[in-house]
């Protein structure tokens, strides 16, 4: 029976796998949350020497969980072994910020990791490997990875802003007291930082009388134009303040959403936010990894075109682009 033929396993690399996000994401991947309930996976887990014992503990637990889709686990501190033949690379390895820091404060430590791992991926990953960078500063780490792995197609290198996108959906849902699954088409523009612009101008809510614009349902423009934006921009910091650790389960879940939609496609009429290599759309200069609204089909993303941008949005989109330009030069100064 053809329907019972098992798919070939997909090799998924998780770097920083002994860390917080690593611990949250590996069971999700092994349960099919990222690539689908019929997709077997082989996990490649990378961390550094001081975390080797903890990494081995994660491997033990993955074996103990007896996940039916999990066809193998490679746990290693060798980037070459980790990258060998991987189809998906989830780059979490790096250092998280602590209370009082901006994400770019971890720049000097983290960009050098992305420069080094770019070559391991370029040389050893599968040709069509899809890369998702999570470690902060996520956009700039992704850009450095792209620049030091020139043979990986630029369309295959992305960074995570889906967490911000999901946070925006969550805030709208809480404020209107509607199901989060009925809210769609928010946009995160720009950097995964406090300059990001969460935009609700095209967002809608499914109601009993059809789809309604969020702007029509939320009567308080002041909330949408001020507090909503700063809440989403500052949510990472608020979680750090509360947990004394940065967000992990929501980041892991958003990373699964990002890869699932990229590989399996976005639902009809829905877009999501992804940090991707700018092609000049919406006047954002090419050569930045910038978060745009995208739809995905057959394993490829495309930027949603033709959305009307008002003056308020324009200024915010440009401000976050400007920060990315500054981060790029700071990153290069850290590498020199
Ligand atoms: P963590 O400190 O718990 O785990 C990070 C792991 O990376 C550690 O186990 C560490 O040993 C490992 N590591 C360090 N250098 C490495 C290297 N060269 N190669 C492989 N592994 C290496 O941190 P965390 O909470 O899991 O967060 C990881 C990163 O993700 C941080 O930079 C954090 O700021 C970022 N983050 C991003 C988002 C986002 O939405 N983009 C959300 C949450 C966290
Ligand atoms: C987040 O958005 O939660 C992460 O980027 C962690 C952080 O430093 O805010």
Keywords, separated by commas or semicolons:
alpha/beta, globular, single chain, 14 strands, 41% helix, binds (2S)-2-hydroxybutanedioic acid, binds nicotinamide-adenine-dinucleotide, six-stranded parallel sheet, 336 residues
Explain what you see.
The protein has helices at about 20-30, 50-65, 80-85, 105-125, 140-145, 160-175, 215, 220-235, 235-245, 250-265, 310-335, and strands at about 10-15, 40-45, 70-75, 90, 130-135, 155-160, 185, 185-190, 195-200, 205, 210-215, 270-275, 290-295, 300-305. The chain has about 325 residues and is α/β, with parallel strands linked by helices. A 6-stranded parallel β-sheet has the order 3-2-1-4-5-6. Helix 2 (about 50-65) links the parallel strand 2 and strand 3 (about 70-75). Helix 4 (about 105-125) packs across helix 5 (about 140-145) and helix 6 (about 160-175) packs antiparallel against helix 8 (about 220-235). The longest helix has 25 residues, at about 310-335. The mean pLDDT is about 95. The structure holds nicotinamide-adenine-dinucleotide and (2S)-2-hydroxybutanedioic acid. Nicotinamide-adenine-dinucleotide binds near residues 18, 19, 95 and 113.
Secondary-structure blueprint of this entry?
Layout: E1 10-15, H1 20-30, E2 41-46, H2 52-64, E3 70-76, H3 79-83, E4 88-91, H4 107-124, E5 130-133, H5 138-147, E6 157-159, H6 162-176, E7 183-184, E8 187-189, E9 197-199, E10 204-207, E11 210-213, H7 214-217, H8 221-233, H9 235-243, H10 249-264, E12 272-277, E13 289-297, E14 300-303, H11 311-335
Parallel strand pairs: 1-2, 1-4, 2-3, 4-5, 5-6
Antiparallel strand pairs: 7-10, 8-9, 10-11, 12-13, 13-14
The chain binds nicotinamide-adenine-dinucleotide and (2S)-2-hydroxybutanedioic acid (LMR).
Nicotinamide-adenine-dinucleotide is lined by residues 15-16, 18-22, 46-48, 51, 92-97, 106, 113, 134-136, 138, 160, 163, 192, 246-248, 251.
């Amino acid at each position: 029976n053809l329907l019972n033929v098992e798919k070939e396993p997909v090799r998924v690399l998780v770097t920083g796998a002994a860390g917080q996000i690593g611990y949250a994401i590996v069971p999700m991947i092994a349960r099919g949350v990222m690539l689908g309930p019929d997709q077997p996976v082989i996990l490649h887990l990378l961390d550094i020497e001081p975390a080797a014992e903890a990494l081995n503990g994660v491997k033990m637990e993955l074996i103990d969980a007896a996940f039916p889709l999990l066809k193998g686990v490679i746990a290693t501190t060798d980037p070459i072994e980790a990258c060998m033949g991987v189809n998906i690379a989830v780059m979490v390895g790096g250092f998280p910020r602590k209370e009082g820091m901006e994400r770019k404060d971890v720049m000097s430590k983290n960009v050098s990791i992305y420069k080094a791992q770019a070559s391991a991926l370029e040389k050893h990953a599968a040709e069509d490997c899809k890369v998702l960078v999570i470690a902060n500063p996520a956009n700039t780490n992704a850009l450095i990875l792209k620049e030091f792995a020139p043979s990986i197609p630029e369309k295959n290198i992305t960074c995570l802003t889906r967490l911000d996108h999901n946070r925006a959906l969550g805030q709208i849902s809480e404020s209107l007291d509607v199901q989060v699954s009925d809210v769609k088409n928010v946009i995160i523009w720009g950097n995964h930082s406090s300059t990001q612009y969460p935009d609700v101008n095209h967002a809608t809510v499914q109601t009993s009388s059809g789809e309604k614009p969020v702007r029509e349902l939320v009567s308080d423009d002041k909330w949408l134009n001020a507090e909503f934006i700063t809440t989403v921009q500052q949510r990472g910091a608020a979680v750090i303040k509360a947990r004394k650790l940065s967000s992990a389960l929501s980041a892991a879940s958003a990373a699964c959403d990002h890869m699932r939609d990229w590989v399996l496609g976005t639902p009809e009429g829905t877009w999501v936010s992804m940090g991707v290599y700018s092609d000049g759309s919406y006047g954002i200069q090419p050569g930045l990894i910038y978060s745009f609204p995208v739809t995905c089909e057959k394993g490829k993303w495309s930027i949603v075109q033709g959305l009307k941008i008002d003056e308020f949005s324009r200024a915010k989109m440009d401000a976050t682009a400007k920060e990315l330009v500054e981060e790029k030069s700071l990153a290069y100064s850290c590498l020199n």
